[in-house]
Design brief:
single chain, eight-stranded mixed sheet, four-stranded antiparallel sheet, 11 helices
Length: 328
């Protein structure tokens, strides 16, 4: 494996058993994350973005969920999926940290911020409580919280939504993780605060050398901060490429539809905003076909009967579509 690759996920399949059948939430996802890279996972709700990363953290509730296949190799050595429970506890928060969508549900409302941050540092960094408090205050200052020496002793409800998310970022980065997973970190915030939080994640990532996996349905976020972009649909990766490749020359019809549906301020208005027709498919017992074909404007007969494989294009770019069969 390339020495720059910090995480290599190969053939990940995560299924959920339900009364209606088996939900194939993630069905054969593979990707690499390099040191210091920001990787964007984009797609509609239900495409498998969050489940992929919860699988990497081994946070899938079992039952009903189960990781059926795949490997997740960190630092070219260890497979996360074969780790013991003790090893996973050491991994979470220490080497891989995660920022969730809603900071109010991630922070314990009954405990002071200091208590929650100190616990993490004492557990993972073997610090004394006094040392951990000093580090906590330093981290709150780093993420731009005013008067951190006083605010560290406040409760979560005493912070605004944006400030709570800053606290979560401070907690996530306090142990100097190699990988930071940000799962829709700005979805509960207003537009102005969104921009501040994203800029903060980006600047801290560059300063600390942390690799970032950004999970989002917002293409503006991806365009502004991601180096590599993965587009997911129905539990599978349908396109993978650099930021410039995806936005300058999208290949998959779904990717093109997503980009066309975003309003552009640099172009004159051309009537109603484009939208992709139909709804994402039910991923329970999907038939052998391209799951996007009912919504695709370039559908062919075989799309309805055969599942397309991955076609590798130039510069390591990948697309899962019959339109590019035979391309090199």
């Amino acid at each position: 494996m390339n020495n720059d690759v910090i995480l290599k996920v190969d053939g990940l399949k995560t299924y959920f058993n339900t009364d209606d059948g088996i939900v194939k939430a993630v069905d054969g996802v593979s990707f690499e994350l390099k040191k210091g890279e920001t990787l964007g996972l984009v797609g509609e709700s239900g495409s498998g973005k969050s489940v992929s990363n919860l699988s990497i953290m081994k946070l899938i509730p079992s039952p009903p969920g189960k990781i059926m296949a795949g490997t997740a190799i960190i630092d070219g050595k260890e497979d996360i999926f074969t780790m013991t429970e003790a090893q996973i506890r050491e991994l979470r928060g220490n080497r891989i940290a995660m920022i969730f969508q809603d900071p109010m549900t991630s922070l314990n409302p009954f405990l002071r911020i200091s208590t929650q941050m100190i616990e993490t540092l004492v557990l993972h960094q073997n610090m004394s409580k006094k040392e951990a408090l000093v580090k906590s205050i330093d981290m709150l200052e780093l993420v731009g919280i005013p008067h951190p020496d006083k605010r560290v002793h406040d409760y979560p409800h005493q912070f605004s939504g944006g400030m709570r998310q800053r606290v979560m970022i401070a907690m996530a980065l306090s142990c100097d993780p190699e990988i930071l997973i940000a799962d829709e970190p700005t979805s509960a915030l207003d537009v102005t605060i969104q921009a501040q939080i994203l800029e903060l994640i980006q600047s801290l990532s560059k300063r600390l050398g942390t690799a970032v996996i950004m999970i989002t349905h917002d293409l503006d976020v991806v365009a502004g901060m991601c180096d590599t972009v993965i587009v997911m649909y129905a539990g599978r990766i349908v396109e993978k490429g650099t930021n410039d490749e995806i936005f300058d020359d999208p290949k998959h019809p779904y990717t093109r539809g997503l980009i066309k549906s975003v309003p552009r301020l640099d172009r004159p208005a051309a009537g109603r905003l484009f939208s992709i027709e139909g709804q994402p498919p039910n991923v329970i017992d999907l038939p052998a076909c391209c799951p996007f074909h009912p919504r695709c404007g370039e559908v062919m007969a075989k799309c309805k009967n055969i599942t397309p494989g991955v076609t590798k294009l130039e510069n390591g770019r990948e697309v899962r579509c019959f339109l590019y069969e035979g391309d090199k």
